[in-house]
Amino acid sequence: MIFMNNILMVFGGNSVEHEISIVTSLQILNKYKGKYNLLLCYLKDGDFYYVKNNVTIKDFERIKHNKKFKKISFKANKNYFYANLKKIEFEGILITAHGMNCEDGLLYSYFKTLNLNIIS
Fold first, then answer.
1. Does the pLDDT of residue 2 top 70, yes or no?
2. Which residues pair with 80 in a beta bridge?
3. Contact 36/5 with Cβ under 8 angstroms?
């Protein structure tokens, strides 16, 4: 399957592999920049944040007051979310989070329950 539109890359989570997930996702973003339109979605303490693509590793130290991070939520059967009142659509979700509650299928199941397209 070839994706032409936005792909939402979900990373982070609450595991000991949290930081590795950040590094992995930023590497994927840099490697495929221009080939795919990757959108970043950071999972921290049960909340999802839309992250601007010009983010650096340092930005993840303080996300609460960082304008590069916007808290978002997902709705069933809706391949979009709102950030700053702007509707952002995505074609599929790529999960790059590591560790417990992510690699064990829980995060995958969450998105499947919402009937969202997951890229595997």
1. no
2. 89
3. no
Average pLDDT on 16-27 reads 90
Write down the pLDDT at residue 85. Answer: 85
C-alpha to C-alpha distance for 29 and 54, rounded to whole angstroms:
10
Distance between CA atoms of 46 and 14, rounded to whole angstroms?
A: 8
Q: Which residue type is seen at 25? A: S
Q: How many residues would you count in the chain?
A: 120
Cα–Cα distance for residue pair 78/66, rounded to 1 Å: 27
- Is the Cβ–Cβ distance between 9 and 28 less than 8 Å? yes
Q: CA separation (Å) from 101 to 11, 14, 60?
A: 12, 8, 20
Compute the average pLDDT of residues 37-54: 92
Sheet of strand 118-119: strand arrangement: 69-72, 47-51, 37-44, 6-12, 92-95, 118-119
Closest CA to 49 of 64, 63, 70, 66: 70
Residues 6+ apart with CB under 8 A from 56: none
